[in-house]
């Protein structure tokens, strides 16, 4: 189950999910809705691109590992480790669309800290825009740092247009449904079969 913003503790295959992609330099989004806590594995897929597969040993509701469901990734890739992954929805002011925002750990921790003073950033009346910088720190694609610009994060009510966008907002559980063990195995078998042919 996805969590309301202040309940989160802080610890893909091709789809129709519209995702916010941070650009180098300044970025600005308004968080809306709930937050989805999960851990994911990154498996090499077609054309060498990595795809995320949810760790089924992690319980979204309790935000802890319970190993209740069969996790086929562990069987197929025993040395592969899963990584922390929170996702929420946001309004992108550049095009006025609701998108999924995959939160990087350092940025998420900075938002949680700022929320202690500024309040819930998802509140339609008293929430605040998340203003952050994306900075390259080295030559590799993952050499990136995210820095919250707390002084630019000012409380403001959603505009009427923005409020209309979130009127029928889906829960993150519906946007990114948890796969069943059978669905995870089927996808893994397809990926493995494609890599050997």
Please sum up the structure shown.
The protein is an alpha+beta fold and about 200 residues long. Helix content is about 25%, strand content about 30%. It contains five helices and eight strands, in the order E-E-E-E-H-E-E-H-E-E-H-H-H.
Task: Describe the SSE topology.
Blueprint: E1 25-44, E2 50-54, E3 58-59, E4 64-65, H1 72-76, E5 83-92, E6 97-103, H2 105-118, E7 129-136, E8 144-148, H3 160-165, H4 172-175, H5 181-196
Antiparallel strand pairs: 1-2, 1-5, 1-7, 3-4, 5-6, 7-8
What's the total helix number? 5
Ranges where pLDDT stays below 50 over 5 or more residues in a row are 9-14
Structural class by sheet pairing and helices: alpha+beta
- Mean pLDDT over all positions: 88
Strand content: 25-35%
- Radius of gyration, rounded? 18 Å
Distance between the termini: 38 Å
In this structure, how is the largest beta sheet organized? 6 strands, antiparallel
Number of strands: 8
Shape field: globular
Determine the fraction of residues in helical runs and give it as a percent range: 10-25%
* N-to-C SSE string, H for helix and E for strand: EEEEHEEHEEHHH
Which features would summarize this protein structure in a list?
5 helices; alpha+beta; 8 strands; two-stranded antiparallel ribbon; 197 residues
Structure notes:
With 197 residues, the chain is of the alpha+beta class. 23% of the residues lie in helices and 30% in strands. It contains five helices and eight strands. The chain has helices spanning 72-76, 105-118, 160-165, 172-175, 181-196; strands at 25-44, 50-54, 58-59, 64-65, 83-92, 97-103, 129-136, 144-148. The strands form two sheets. Strands 1, 2, 5, 6, 7 and 8 form a six-stranded antiparallel β-sheet that branches. A two-stranded antiparallel sheet has the order 3-4. Strand 7 and strand 8 form a beta hairpin. The chain is globular and about 50 Å long. The termini are far apart.
